[in-house]
Design goal:
alpha+beta; Beta-Lactamase; Alpha-Beta Plaits; 3 domains; five-stranded antiparallel sheet; five-stranded mixed sheet; 12 helices; 52% helix; 24% strand; rod-shaped; binds guanosine-5'-triphosphate; EC 2.7.7.65
């Protein structure tokens, strides 16, 4: 015992004799439920067990007598011993108590490798020669604490994974809902509601920046006959094919929408009537070339006096009707 600690202990218990205190320490040593031990560094870096309490022996499923005097390297697997030894040497070098938590593996009586997490307090003590070579240690098994923490972490990770998956699902649903709210389900072009919204925005942009904006309205010629002669499904496929042909002509920045039935609208930002005419004619020719159906088209450019997009749309619709009257499969510019 280091005199310094004994003096402190006696001061704590002024009415108790040194003898009784030794008794008290003996009782603690024998009954304390956590491991207590003393080891000595006998060869540089090699520690021998010089004392251990019954709680420590129980962990190894051996007796105190059996373990006393044993080299630590014989009690612990090499990798565990390497870690523990480092703490021991650091404590002796520092000459002051240290605490650490470490996963410790050991072999039980049956030679089975066991594992646990231990919180250890080491106190360095001087030997007879006054050299710090002895360590007194108390180790508490905190494996359950760690396992609870690991379980909690695993639970949290699982929870986070589920939340992420659910969020992804919700986002996908939201995307589908947003698309459904703006898209025509058959042709996948914008629906009329979205056309109104985008049309208004383009109208305002064209006004503010005084740029051209053209409107093309088109309708499949005698579409009713497709349904009547080949069925509704065939009619649907004609519309899907038509959109493919129209898209092949339009730019990405152009807006294509279903106005209703077999009637579609293309808004061409930054495009004059003359240029839009070329585009519309290409649309008509592409559809004709595909050979499934033909289309009639009405075209107009946004005018200074147009109070809203609806006015331009109505004018394009008038031109479309006139194109129908002229015999279909043709294109007219609104007057
Ligand atoms: N298959 C199919 N038919 C549709 C759809 N929407 C509207 N129709 C049909 O399209 C036809 C539109 O006919 P109209 O535009 O009035 O006339 P049309 O036969 O095209 O003749 P014109 O326009 O005068 O050349 C109607 O018979 C509608 O029932 C659809 O989504 N799928």
């Amino acid at each position: 015992m280091n005199g310094q600690y004994a003096t402190q202990l006696l001061q704590q218990f002024p009415d108790v004799t040194a003898d009784r205190l030794m008794d008290l320490f003996g009782a603690v040593w024998a009954y304390f439920p956590e491991s207590m031990f003393m080891v000595r560094e006998e060869v540089e870096g090699e520690f021998r067990v010089i004392a251990l309490n019954p709680a420590q022996a129980r962990i190894f499923e051996r007796t105190v007598a059996d373990m006393k005097g044993e080299w630590l390297s014989n009690l612990l697997p090499a990798d565990t011993y390497a870690v523990i030894r480092k703490h021991y040497q650091q404590c002796l070098a520092a000459r002051e108590p240290v605490r650490y938590e470490e996963q410790v593996d050991y072999e039980d009586a049956a030679g089975e490798r066991q594992s646990g997490v231990w919180s250890t307090l080491l106190v360095p003590l001087r030997d007879q020669e006054g050299r710090f070579s002895i360590l007194f240690g108390i180790s508490q098994n905190i494996t359950n604490l760690y396992e609870a923490q690991w379980a909690l972490e695993r639970q949290n990770q699982e929870l986070e994974r589920r939340v992420a998956a659910r969020t992804e699902e919700l986002e996908a649903t939201n995307r589908r809902l947003a698309e459904a709210a703006t898209q025509d389900p058959l042709t996948l072009v914008y629906n009329r509601r979205k056309l109104n919204e985008l049309g208004q925005a383009e109208f305002e942009r064209a006004r503010r920046h005084q740029t051209a904006l053209s409107v093309i309205m088109l309708d499949v010629d005698e579409f009713k006959a497709f349904n009547e002669n080949h069925g509704h499904h065939f009619g649907d496929q004609v519309l899907v094919g038509l959109i493919k042909d129209l898209r092949s002509v339009l730019r990405k920045s152009d807006i294509l929408a279903r106005f209703g039935g077999d009637e579609f609208v293309a808004l061409l930002p930054h495009t004059t009537e003359t240029n839009a005419y070329t585009v519309a004619e290409k649309m008509r020719a592409a559809v004709e070339q595909a050979g499934q159906c033909s289309i009639s088209l009405g075209l107009t450019e946004l005018r200074v006096n147009d109070a809203s997009m609806a006015v331009a749309l109505e004018r394009a619709d008038g031109a479309l009707r006139a194109a129908k009257q002229q015999g279909r499969n043709c294109l007219l510019i609104a007057t």
